[in-house]
Amino acid sequence: MTDTAPGLPQLGTTLFSLTLEQRAPGNDLAALLRKVATRELGPGVEMVAFQSLRGWPRLDDAAVRKVRGLIADSGLTPSCLAINLDLALQPGRLLSDDEAYEYVAVQLRGAASLGFPAVRVGVECGPEIMTRLLPLAEQLGVKIGVEIHAPLTIDAPPVAALKELFTRLDTEWLGFIPDFSASMRAVPAAVDDAHRKAGIAPELTALTRQLWAQPGPTMAKFPQLEQRAAELGAGQAEIGNLKMIFTMHGRMEPERWADFFPHVIHVHGKFYGVFDGPDGPSDPSIDYPAIVRVLREQGYTGFISSEYEAHAYTGLYSAFDQVRAQHDMLKRLLEAEPAVAR
Amino acid sequence: MLEVPMIQTRGFRNREPGEGFEVRLRLPYYRGLWTNLIEGAAITVDSETFAADGIGWSIDGVEYSLAQLRSSETARWPVDVPAILRVPRSEPLPIGFHDVRADLRLRMSYIPEELQPTIWSEQRRLVITR
Q: What residues does the C-glycoside deglycosidase beta subunit domain cover (chain B) (predicted)?
């Protein structure tokens, strides 16, 4: 396990990092848990329920016993279960509040039965549903965290509304799960490889990178991208791919992570690759020292789940090796002397 | 055994005379999908494109038209179960290699409407042996 010193954030892995590995023969849940444990990529383990648990959200008692047994045998500590509110499940309408509540509640009960202390939901699980879920969360002893993933920021209206709610309720059972993807300093190089393979012209990727780097809210850039990419001859599918650069890589200043506190219940360490450089391993797209500084200053002692996602762009790297490299870097930064405030 | 890419090389075959052919797709989305979020898949073999509307589906032994897939409230396409697509064609495909392309359109249940649908496109060279 990558143990960190007491009083610091703890490290862990979400099995989502292993999405490509999961597609290889033989890598069932038991095998993936065993490999994470053998490679000492705990102590925390997170998984996406719909991805890792066949039959979710309705597991029978035997399935629950089996999953609990697999986690116990691995020696890993369940940190968080990622669940989903599929709000746009029905064509042409969104789920009603009653339907949304039920859709999440059954998963919250499932998480409790599996022994997870927290669940992750998306921002579509808004203040109304969160408020209704609070008594159940308290009763089950399972915290509910809203993931703040790119392109969301602390200032985005749905996030600001949640912040207001959490402040008002002042409860330990509801909170945020900020994700490194919200605060990136560059678009990962792997994107270029993926676009090249998909036959997307380099000038289209360059245009999107250029718009990405400009100041201003991401959501406002979509129409501009559509228009300028279409002028360069991009089709619908290509524009869809280009838009993903905006939705997956946020530009919120890392220092703003302080505003998520004291309502942070878990952290997602999304990343796209740690590489050896002249000054040792580093990640060109994420400013780890800046984020780690905030987590330390806020006294955060929960988990950081390493979430390797370059598998969406490239199969060149082993997710196991990448999580190892990220853990080593995080541990080094977390345990370094406190940085001088800027 | 499933292959990692969306288009599976196994299972690409002609059906009975007059019934067209089959190709198997693995869901490229990572966490399985309620089938009513599938907008359809267009298949192109060499330069001949077959529209999504006319293609029948089979998932986990259950057969669906595209309309049935889209109206089901309970059917799922698990990440480790390939869908068999039945593509109508009056003549069987010639024996030999074919460039097969799939354009799979999915609605993501949590992504803003203006970003829908998500389209997964892939091309592989497959072989018809009989």
A: 4-110
